[in-house]
Amino acid sequence: MSDVNEKMAALGKVRSVIRDIFEYGNARRREIGAENVYDFSLGNPSVPAPREVDDAVCDLLENTDSVALHGYTSAVGDEGVRRAVADDINRRFSAGVTKDDIYMTCGAAASLTVTLGAVVNEGDEVVVIAPFFPEYRVFAEKAGATVVVVPADTDSFQVDLDALSRAVTPRTKAVIINTPNNPTGVVIKRERLEGLCALLRSREEEYGKTIFLISDEPYRELVYDDGIEVPYVTNLYDDTVVCYSFSKSLSLPGERIGYIVVPQKVKDSREVYAAVCGAGRALGYVCAPSTMQRVVARCLGKTSDISVYKTNRDLLYESLTSYGYECVYPDGAFYLFVKSPDESAAAFCERAKKYELLLVPSESFGCPGYVRISYCVSTDMIKRSLPSFKALIEEYK
Prior knowledge:
The chain is of the alpha/beta class. The chain folds into 2 domains: about 5-50 and about 305-395, Aspartate Aminotransferase, domain 1; about 50-300, Aspartate Aminotransferase, domain 2 (3-Layer(aba) Sandwich), CATH 3.40.640.10. Helices cover about 40% and strands about 15% of the residues. The chain has a 7-stranded mixed β-sheet, sandwiched between helices. A 4-stranded antiparallel β-sheet has the order 9-10-13-12. A two-stranded parallel ribbon has the order 1-11. A hairpin with a 6-residue loop joins strand 9 and strand 10. Helix 6 crosses helix 10 (about 270-285). The longest helix has 18 residues, at about 190-205. The protein is globular and about 60 Å long. The protein starts with 5 loop residues before the first helix and ends with a helix.
């Protein structure tokens, strides 16, 4: 019998596909030079944080008592920060939330693991909609849930409501959505989202139980075309919990800062909020980084220069489709989802390495036959990589 948790050891020994490719890229950069490696693996923002972030950091360091700045805040987050977050949400979305609905977290992963830990009991089911961020499975199963996958609608990459209807059962405790989506960049249209919410309301009534809609929102602000709406889901479905991260909007992935919203419209919302606090305590996520809480409170409503991502999207999408690749048009986020010209996406990604192109196969996203390309890279790297993309597709013609 092993002296350690075998399930955790297995997770530790096998890195995620994305991280594995990223580490391969690090090795190749050391071997042949960074300028010769075209690494599209990781969703790591490539534009700097807005000036307001640096200014806030400097001002706080220079003008705030060091003990207070670097000390503990309340376990749920600094009261003034939570009030500022709630005010910003209400200003933008008229959501009617208060500081007492906000729980500050160590980024999106903590938001999701805490929320799932709060609402899931052993044997519950959590529904995810393909393609989905692979760690959803890890987080949900760690909370004791069985993951149920709704197959991707590869015609539109919108939510297939008929398939979702079949997936939601009396054992369903939560449904996770992510819009704009990682890995497709697609935004769920309002009418499709309204249909999803209507379905969940009807099942709540039929089953006599709460079904939580967990809205994972690290890419909310990253949309590029006029007329693209990302509805605030708490306004459409009462039993919604929002998980937010500043990693993408403010280019702060290494700072690990975000929040959970448990609106008072949620059934037994104070009990749910208490469970969030308890899950945070049990998981060790009490007191999100103190300085960064104060920094983001001063930068609410700001974003990095996301016009760079729009430039990258347009360049990559137009170039690849002109070469013969079949690509999903991304409304937002910073990923391009490309149909593999090889029956095996993993085999296609291995062949791409011959051209020093590092792409992520889609199997772990629950949607085989595609690859994810992260275009949160320098525009210059995209331009330099285009001949390699062209040579690669030519092998399949």
